[in-house]
TrEMBL record:
Name of this chain's protein: Uncharacterized protein
Length: 123
C-alpha cells in the first residue's frame, strides 16, 4: 500500500492580497484613506503569507489548511493587534477611528479591545 502524497501549494501573496482587499473594501467603504488602506492590505498579505509558510514547515500534516488564505485568520486577536499597531504607526491621531471601522466596533467595544490588547502586550 502506497500513501498518496498531496502536494498542496501555497497560494501566492497576490492571492492573499486580493482576498484581504475584497474582504475589507466593503467594510471600510472608502472611510480610510486609500494609501493607508492599500498599505495595510499589502502589509497583511506579506505578514500572513510569511506566517502560513512558517506554519506549513512547522506542521507538515497541516499543509492543506495552510495552502490558501482563510478570512477567519483576520479575526484572530494577534492579527487584529498587528492591524491596530500598523494603523497607529501610519496615523497616530486617527488610528482608533480606522480600527473601529475595520473591526466594526463601537467606541466602548474599542476601549475594551484596547484594554485586552494592552493586557496581552504587557503580560
Amino acid at each position: 500500500m502506497t500513501l498518496e502524497k498531496n502536494d498542496y501549494k501555497l497560494e501566492s501573496k497576490k492571492a492573499f492580497l486580493e482576498k484581504i482587499e475584497n474582504h475589507y473594501k466593503p467594510i471600510t467603504d472608502e472611510k480610510i484613506p486609500e494609501s493607508i488602506f492599500s498599505d495595510l492590505c499589502k502589509y497583511l498579505a506579506r505578514s500572513l503569507h510569511k506566517s502560513y509558510k512558517t506554519l506549513r514547515k512547522r506542521h507538515p500534516q497541516s499543509k492543506e489548511r495552510y495552502s490558501s488564505f482563510k478570512i477567519k485568520d483576520l479575526q484572530y486577536p494577534f492579527t487584529q493587534y498587528c492591524i491596530t499597531n500598523f494603523l497607529k504607526e501610519k496615523d497616530a491621531i486617527n488610528y482608533s477611528k480606522y480600527s473601529k471601522i475595520i473591526f466594526q466596533m463601537t467606541e466602548n467595544e474599542f476601549k475594551d479591545y484596547e484594554k485586552q490588547k494592552h493586557a496581552y502586550e504587557t503580560k
